[in-house]
Amino acid sequence: MTSRGIEVPCLMIPEKRKTAINNPEIKLTGRLRRRYPSTK
To answer: Whole-prediction pTM value?
Structure first.
């Protein structure tokens, strides 16, 4: 649930915080980064 590349910057902005958590693309990117560290 921690995609440091995308969610962390979004968490700084309260308005975008919900979007970051509810956005399936961001969740998917987080999973991909966990499976493929090379995309870091």
So the answer is: 0.17
